Amino acid sequence: MYNRVVPLALIPLVMSASGVVANELNPDVSVTLDGYYKQNDTALSHREEGFGLGHTELSLSSPIDDLFSGRLTAVFGEHDGESEVLIEEAYLQTNGLPASLSIRAGRFLSQVGYLNSRHMHEDDFVERPAAYRAMLGSHYYDTGLRFNALLPTPFFWQVGAEAFAGDQLTEGDEDIGVFTLNTRVGGDISVSQSWQLGVSYLNNGHADSADTGDGSHDYVSEEEHDHDHSHGAGYTGENLYIADLVWKWSPNGNTREQQLTLSGEYLYADELNQYAASDDTNEGWYLSGVYQFAPQWSAGVRYGEVDLREAHGDHFHSQALEETDVMLSWSRSHFSTVRLQYTHQSATGFDKADNAVMVQYVMSLGAHGAHGY
Amino acid sequence: MGTDMGFRKGFAALLLLLAALPAKAQFRVFACEPEWAALVRELVPEADVTTATTYLQDPHYIEARPSLIAAVRRADIAVCTGASLEAGWLPMLLQRASNPAIQPGRPGLFFAADHARLHAPHDHVDRSMGDVHPEGNPHVHLAPDELPEIAGALAKRLTELEPEAAAAILGRYIRWRGDWNRLRAQWQESGEALEGQSVVVQHSSFSYLLRWLGVETAVDLEPKPGMPPSASHLSRLLTEPLLKEAAAILIASHQDRQPAEWLAERTGLPVIVVPGTVTGKAPADSLGGLITTIVSRLETTVSGASDGVL
Question: What is the ipTM of this complex?
C-alpha cells in the first residue's frame, strides 16, 4: 500500500517531489478482477455454479479541482451469456465545505447499513449476507444526491440524507423514488478496540408499484426474480430499517499483525406492496466474525437468516433461509486475495438452497484508494 | 424531507455554535505519527494534540476509524509524513472529516516529506517490486540532517496559522535547533564506532539514520518492501554472504519478532528491538531522545559484538 496512488493525498506530493511521476493530470485508474469457482448453485445467489467472473470493475478517480473530486466505476458482468456494462458509480464529491458538510451527486452506493457503501472487493466473504442479497440486491446504488454532516461533538457523529431516482431498487414513476436517512456514531474503547453504530432508514416510494408476479403458482422462483431485476433487490418494501454495529480489536491497535472484526446488521422492511397486510414483512440479520491472525491470513465465520414474503399477485408466500459461511483467505500483498469458502444453507420455499464450496480470487490492479472503517 | 433537512441544519448549526465557543481558545493538532506530535509539542507546548498512531503500530496500516475522523474534523492543522506513507487511510479521513482547513493544497495539511530530500525516489515503480513509494523512502523522521528543515517549515506553517503566537513559536524553534545540533554532534561522535558496520533490517524504517551513521544494510528480512518475512526468504538469507558481515539484527517495536529471532538462533546475531518512533516515555519521548536511544543501543550491541568477532 506504500505506493497506492490515491487522488487526494498524492497529487500535492507528486508535484512537490522532484522528478517522480509525470501523470499528475491523469486520473487514477484501478481495475478489480474477481473470479471464482463454485461447486453448485445456492439460493438467493448472484453467482452461478462452475467457473465465473464476479464483480469485475474498472474505476477512474481524480480530484477535479480544489473543491470537487470525482469517480467513475463501471462493472462488467455476464447474464445468460450476454455481456453487460453497468455504471455503478459516476459521482462528484465536495472536499471540505464549511461546517463539515459534504455533498455527493450522481450515481453512487447508498450509505444505508454497514456493508452497502463499501465496495464489494473489500468484503471478507464471497457474497454479501442473504439479507443484503434479498433486500438490497447485494448493494444498492442509484442516481441521486447526498448530504452529510459531521456534528461538532467530541466523538464521531455523522448524519446524512440521500435522495435517489429509485429505479435501481424498484422500477416506478416517481421522480424521487427513494430517500434515506442515516446516522452513525463511533469511537475508541481503548488503543486496541474501536466501534461504530449505525441506524438507517430507506423509504421506497416505488414499493406500491412493484411487480407482484402473475399470481400463478407454477413457476415463480428466485431464478425469475434474479433475471427480472437482475441487479435490483428481489424483496423490497416501502420502509426499510437497518441497524448495524461493528467492533474491531487488534493488539496495541497494530492492525498489520492481527485484527478481529465482529460485525452484525439487522434489516426489517414492511409495506411490501399494494396487497401487503400489516404482518407481511421482510426481515433478515447476520453476524460475522473475521480474524486476521497473521499479516497475510484471515479466517472467518458468518451466520445469517432471512424471513421473507415473496409476492404472488395479490398474496404472499413465506420463504426463509438460514446460511452459515466459513472462509479462509490468503493475501500475498495488500492487492491480491485468494479465498476458500464453504456455505451451508437450509431453507423453506427456495428451490436452489444447497451447500457449496467456493474458491475466489480478488485482484486489484493500478491505483488503490484508501479504505473506510 | 425538506422540513427534516431544515431541522437538521438548524440543529447542526446550534451544536456548532455551542462547540465553537470553548473550542476557539485552544490550538488543535492532528498528528498522523507520534514523531510529528512530539515536534509540534516542542514548538507549541500548549496545543491540544491528537496522535493517530503509536510506536507499536505500523503507520502504513491504520484504519480510518470514527475517532480519527472526529479528531480531523476538530483540528486546525494535520501534521503527517506524506510520500504516500498514509495513502491507505489519510485520504479517507480527510474526505470523511470534511474539514475545510485540512485539505490537500491548503495550509492546514502539512507533509514533512515535502520539506526533506528523500532517499531512493523511483521514476518507475510497479507492484512486483513490492510496496515501493515512487516519492522515496517516507521514514524521514530519523534523518538527522533533514529534521531541521522539516522543523523549520513546520514552525513557519504554525506561525501562519497562529500569528499571535509567532514570536514564541520561532523562539522555541531556535532553541530546538540548538539542542538538535548539540545532539547531532553527540550522535556523530558515538557513530564513529559504528561506521562501516552492517546490520540486518526489516523494512526501510531506520535507513535514514543508518546511512547517516555510515552503517550498511546487510540484508532485509522482508522479501519485498512491505511484505512480511516468509520462511523461504529467511532460509535463502542464511546462504547470503553479506550476512556474515552483519553485527546485529535491528527491528522496530511494532514488528513481529519471530523472523528476527529465527535468524538470530541460526546465526548467533544479537537482536535489537528499538521503537521506530517516539514512545511517550523518556528517554524516547522526543525525536532527539529517540535517536539517542537507537544510536546507543546500536553502539552497545554492535561494538560488543564486533569485539567478540575480533
Answer: 0.87
